Each structure stands twice: as C-alpha cells, then as structure tokens.
C-alpha cells in the first residue's frame, strides 16, 4: 500500500469529533426569571442566585439586580451573582459572554470566578472600571477548563460608592440573553469507530511484515 493510503488511514483512525455548543444561557427579563433560558445537550442549568451579602432590588426594564454591595476596594466573598450547570456529558469550555451595568452608586469593579467543585474558585475575568451605562463583554476566554461536567460561576461586585448602589445583568446579548456559556462537546467514539481503529492496527501489523525471500540453489 502506498504512503498516501496510509496517511488516509491515519486520519480516519485518529480524528476526533468535536463541535461548538451552547452550554447554558440566561435571560432574566424574557419570562425566564432566574432559570436558564437555554441549555446544551445533557445540561441542567443552575438557577441564577444572589450571595447572602446582597439584596434583590429593582432596576430599569426589570433587569436582574441587587444592592448592598461592599464599598471596600477588595471583594467580599458574600457579595456575588451565581450561575452554573451540571451535565451528563463532558465539555471543554471555550467562551463566556456577559452583559451588565450599574447605577452611579453601584460597584465600580467586578471579578468573575469559576469552580468545578463549588469550593475552589479561579478568576476568569475582571473589570476594574465598570461604567454606569452598560457593558457587553463577549468571548471571554475560559478554555483553561476542560472535561467539565459541572461548573459554578460567581460574579463578585465591589468598590461601590454607596451600599444602596445597584448592579444588574443586561439582556443585550444574542437572543436577549445576559449570560452565555459556550464549550465543545467531544463525541464518544461509536462502535464503528472502535472497529476502524482495530482494523487500522491490523493493517499496520501486516505492513510491517516483510515477505520472505526464497533463494534457489
């Protein structure tokens, strides 16, 4: 068999299938309230929630909002919005889209953190100058997290001008969402794929065998 043929076999044997997928999204003003607006294959979205240090409040257009954010220049571990997911399938996370705003007295800084166990959180995004007319941050890189079956995000707000200052999630992303989490769902090899791999092994074993040269006397 020629080299080109073996290259084709290699591609067939070792190629992996992956596709970009929505994992979970939230649209609090679209009649969904705190529940996820959409979820990916095998995914259950966790409800949007407020940490124990902040209080629900009203905001323009019914956006998901809170007040009582800390005025400290350091984050308070009780002052956060939380969302996340569990899944029967493993995902390699790719991007986070997030839209938010504050009033003139709301927190001027945020830090978004992620955890796969709900205990140990790592920062994935921060904004040290939140504006009071709204922001939409798309394609925040979260690709460091792979093979994830459950995850929790927390958005910490801090450095508020006053404790009565407000912070809210805006519905200005695609589909009117405020939060979109994306990832790659890698397909599990089907039985036919496993058979192909076995066949490849047999072919290469055959190729390695050299024909016996017979010598006439």
TrEMBL record:
Entry keywords, A to Z:
Signal
Membrane-crossing residues?
A: none
Residue ranges of the Ice-binding protein C-terminal domain? 187-210
* Keyword Signal appears in the UniProt entry: yes
Please state what the protein is called. Ice-binding protein C-terminal domain-containing protein
InterPro entries, per this entry? Answer: Ice-binding_C
Q: Which residues form the signal peptide?
A: 1-20
* Pfam families in alphabetical order: PEP-CTERM
């Amino acid at each position: 068999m020629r080299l080109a043929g073996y290259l084709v076999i290699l591609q067939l044997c070792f190629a992996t299938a992956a596709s970009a997928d929505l994992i979970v999204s939230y649209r609090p003003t679209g009649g969904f309230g705190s529940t996820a607006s959409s979820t990916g294959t095998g995914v259950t979205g966790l409800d949007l929630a407020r940490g124990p240090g902040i209080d629900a409040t009203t905001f323009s257009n019914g956006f998901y909002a809170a007040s009582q954010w800390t005025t400290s220049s350091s984050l308070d571990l009780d002052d956060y919005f939380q969302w996340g997911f569990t899944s029967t399938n493993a995902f390699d996370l790719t991007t986070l889209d997030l839209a938010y705003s504050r009033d003139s007295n709301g927190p001027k800084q945020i830090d978004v953190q992620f955890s796969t166990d709900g205990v140990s959180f790592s920062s994935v995004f921060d904004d040290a100058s939140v504006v009071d007319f709204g922001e939409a941050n798309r394609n925040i890189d979260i690709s460091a997290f792979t093979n994830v079956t459950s995850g929790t995000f927390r958005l910490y707000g801090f450095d508020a001008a006053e404790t009565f200052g407000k912070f809210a999630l805006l519905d200005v992303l695609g589909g009117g969402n405020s939060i979109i989490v994306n990832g790659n769902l890698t397909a599990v090899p089907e039985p036919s794929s496993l058979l192909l791999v076995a066949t490849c092994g047999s072919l290469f074993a055959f190729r390695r065998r050299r024909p016996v040269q017979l010598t006439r006397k």
